[in-house]
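Revision sheet: structure tokens.
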Amino acid sequence: MRNFLIASALVILLLLAYVRNIILSCGHPYYAQTEISQLHSAMRGYQERYGEFPPCLADASLVARQERFMKHLATAFPGSAYGKTVQDYQRLRERLLSTPAPDEQAYLFINRSGQPEPLNLDMLDPAESLVFWLGGFPAPFDAEKYTDRKSLFGFHRDRDNPFRRDSLQAEGSDAFRFRTDPLHDFRNEGFTDNDADGWLEYSLYLSATEELNTPVVYFDAATYQASSQHAALLGTVRYPADGTLVKAWGYAIPYLEKFSPAQPETAVWREADSFQLIDAGKDNRYGPSAHPDTRRMVELPSGRTYTTVYPGPYVESELSAEEKDNRTSFVK
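Predicted:
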């Protein structure tokens, strides 16, 4: 009788998980917002574990992105010897791109030409950084040789060298045994790689009619706060960077609480001390199509929008139709 009850309970749990995944894949607003809340909690958990929120890698300057990446690694993994400078970043990047040491393997993915290619740290963006920091590296394409295919590979459990991948001999029959677990219960069917760079994004639902599915985007406060300190940078924190994706989706941007076109440097951001998660909703668009020189500042919940073709004047308007169904981690 006891075994029957245990078996029945397991069946019920599996059915509930199946129904949850079906509902999420259909984009039900309640469950999509619930998962955004769960992602929000997971990122809070990351901050508690590693000491700070990770960089979203949306800085307009590549050098600034590289510096913030290395400084965060030094905070999150203080025992590592990766360093803190741009030069240290380049060494780490080249290490991942080049032939690894005899006791390590490369993180390889299959590119659009059908060939194995190593991951490039420079390609990480604000959607991929959400998955990377909460879940680690994407599973290398050859990991399926050892165990059932998974979409996430975690970090190495060696906190002094979390970016390493063990040798073929060390991995043995289970490539995942020395890897960390994700901080969020990601659904494997939600993973995408819209820009085909090997790094994974995460969509709350996959449209049956759209070839490209918008992922959840992560912006950390340190990045958008820094952008409002310089007029030339204000409005440059956004996603995506790929022109094809911008045409399909528009730009995802971090939102403001208060903005004055006369004094843009006094911008007050939503979630000024933490981060924002942005989802495009069921229309699969973050915002209106825009030229790369166009910058948009949007207040929430008021919806007041200020648009400029930098360095021209700001034009005030209402919240765009594309943004009205966007979901965030702070406006329920």
